[in-house]
């Protein structure tokens, strides 16, 4: 898939999160981007899949003092919440994995989209419907 198409879709999805009244979203988005990386990555993965951009794997990385989640597809990393950390410039990261090397311990959690409706995901499913609709309007 084209990195430009992935970046465009990820940018639209982040804009949808930023412009949605946080009280309309589940608690994981209240302080977006801080503490939102898992939920944002899961929903973004489903959105990218629904846009025909392929399957993305949810990755959770851990360091001595932090935990962070992002998406990967082949050699492409997609992260719309990296700006919650000092030393990272930019809102959307689509590219290589240089910055994430600080998270030496990694767990690959399978296709991100499957985490949206995993039983406890009813709140996330509602968030997804709202955010996907808004992201499509941002096109």
Give the gist of this structure.
With 139 residues, this protein is of the alpha+beta class. The chain contains 3 helices and 5 strands.
Description:
The protein has helices at 3-19, 37-50, 122-137, and strands at residues 57-62, 67-73, 76-79, 93-95, 105-111. It is globular, with a radius of gyration of 14 Å. The protein has one domain. Helix 1 crosses helix 2 (37-50), helix 1 crosses helix 3 and helix 2 (37-50) packs across helix 3 (122-137). The chain is of the alpha+beta class and 139 residues long. It is built from three helices and five strands; from the N terminus they run ααβββββα. Strands 4-3-2-1-5 form a five-stranded antiparallel beta sheet, covered by helices on one side.
Attribute tags:
139 residues; alpha+beta
Give the DSSP E fraction (strand runs of 2 or more residues): 15-25%
Task: Describe the main β-sheet briefly.
Answer: 5 strands, antiparallel
- Oligomerization status of the protein chains: single chain
Q: Quickly count the domains.
A: 1
| Secondary structure tally: strands | 5
* Shape type: globular
What would you call the structural class? alpha+beta
Q: Measure the end-to-end span.
A: 18 Å
Radius of gyration: 14 Å
Total number of helices: 3
Note the run of SSEs as H and E: HHEEEEEH
Topology:
Layout: H1 3-19, H2 37-50, E1 57-62, E2 67-73, E3 76-79, E4 93-95, E5 105-111, H3 122-137
Helix pairs in contact: 1-2, 1-3, 2-3
């Amino acid at each position: 898939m084209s990195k430009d198409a992935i970046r465009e879709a990820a940018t639209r999805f982040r804009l949808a999160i930023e412009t949605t009244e946080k009280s309309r979203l589940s608690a994981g988005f209240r302080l977006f981007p801080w503490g939102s990386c898992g939920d944002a990555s899961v929903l973004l993965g489903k959105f990218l899949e629904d846009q025909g951009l392929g399957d993305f794997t949810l990755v959770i990385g851990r360091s001595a003092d932090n935990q962070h989640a992002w998406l990967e597809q082949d050699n492409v990393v997609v992260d719309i919440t990296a700006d919650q950390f000092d030393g990272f410039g930019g809102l959307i990261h689509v590219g290589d994995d240089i910055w994430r090397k600080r998270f030496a311990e990694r767990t690959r959690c399978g296709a991100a989209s499957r985490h949206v409706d995993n039983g406890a995901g009813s709140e996330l499913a509602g968030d997804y419907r709202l955010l996907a609709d808004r992201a499509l309007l941002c096109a």
